[in-house]
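Dear Dr. K.,

Following up on our conversation at the group meeting, I've run the structure prediction for MFS transporter from Mucilaginibacter aquariorum. I'm pasting the input sequence below exactly as I used it, so you can double-check it against your construct before we proceed with anything downstream. Let me know if the numbering doesn't match what you have in your notebook.
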Amino acid sequence: MSDTKKTNYRWVVVTLLFFATTINYLDRQVIGFLKPTLEKEFHWTEEDYGYIVMAFQAAYAIGLLAFGGFIDRLGTKLGYTISLIVWSLAAMLHAIVKTTLGFGVVRAALGLGESGNFPAAIKVVAEWFPKKERALATGIFNSGANIGAVAAPVMVPWILGIYGWQMAFLITGAIGFVWLIFWWIFYEIPSRHKKISKTEFEHIHSDIDESVVDGEPETKVKWVRLFSIRQTWVFVVGKFLTDPIWWFFLFWLPSYFASTFKLDLTKPSLPLVIVYTATTIGSIGGGFLSSWFIKRGMPVFKARKTAMFLFALCVLPIFGARYATNIWQAVALISLAAAAHQAWSANIFTTASDMFPKRAVSSVVGIGGMAGSVGGIIFPFIIGWVLETYKEAGNIIAGYNIIFSICACAYLLAWLIMHLLTPRMKVVKL
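The predicted structure tokens came back this morning:
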């Protein structure tokens, strides 16, 4: 640890998290852009695709529950490494699959590996940032999800057109191993890092809880115990009701634009690039807004809750997507909703590190993430059934209108329930 100069190494750490999250979302979204190609090759129905998405979500849910406690025990550096190796290998294995069942298996493996990203990243933020900076840091790394989503509509059609769908999985899956080199070179927890100054170390730990000494927990927390705490359920409810909406934006938007507005998914897709670019602004802006409220003197929990209420309101206009007469009207409404989701996400993740001590953060994020994935298992089943029903009736657009109506209401409902569970969102004392 350097005592000679002031450092800001924590922002280097956020940069590492940003690129990991970018790769995470790039790998999971490849299949959405290959859906029309794979439907023809493997004769998928909408329900078949829904089951494949559900396989990912089910494994993701199980993995979140396991990885949260796993990372709390093993540490962020090694835990993140194992997670990335598993998901990158699974992403590459998509290239050799020959059956619909095989896709379900490799999607489950991908979900299992990718489930480690957010529990690890949120714990890293808790280790490296004081509370007043965590929402912004979370918003920055979480915006990697959007960059991955922006890269996919450019990279995947280009690779598909030149090399075929198998290479799209191989190339995107291999990128994670490049990131892993930088992770091992540049990352360590603050107490062990040689490139941060004493001033930065003290800033990081300016609001440290007494149960943590020098960045390391004195005792571990059994995750089963966390289920008895009301604040855990605040996070669980928020994730359960809103995460499935994001999965819909990731896995079904390409086919929505293709079926409704005849968008050609074999070419780079400007409408999708615009939607996912807007989410980058939402993620960083959402983290900035609650941090700005705090700097203006608003209590931490009130700042988070106020910001999240505003973002919930911003999703409501997606009701109007059913009346869109051209693709750009739909793009504008969906962009606002998707950006609001990422702004919401940056803040709801931060509430976990606000309410719980660092030694329990990964476990809480894992539990909440599992709930979000359970919602993500249920919602694709509903989506697949609704779309297939209306497709057979010759009016698939009406099916999408029903889905958008559900999306519009989800965030306000989540916010209301969260508020009723813990009106003041007090800090948990374990």
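Two things stood out to me. The chain is about 80% helix and 0% strand. The beta strands are 212-213, 216-217.

Best regards,
J.T.
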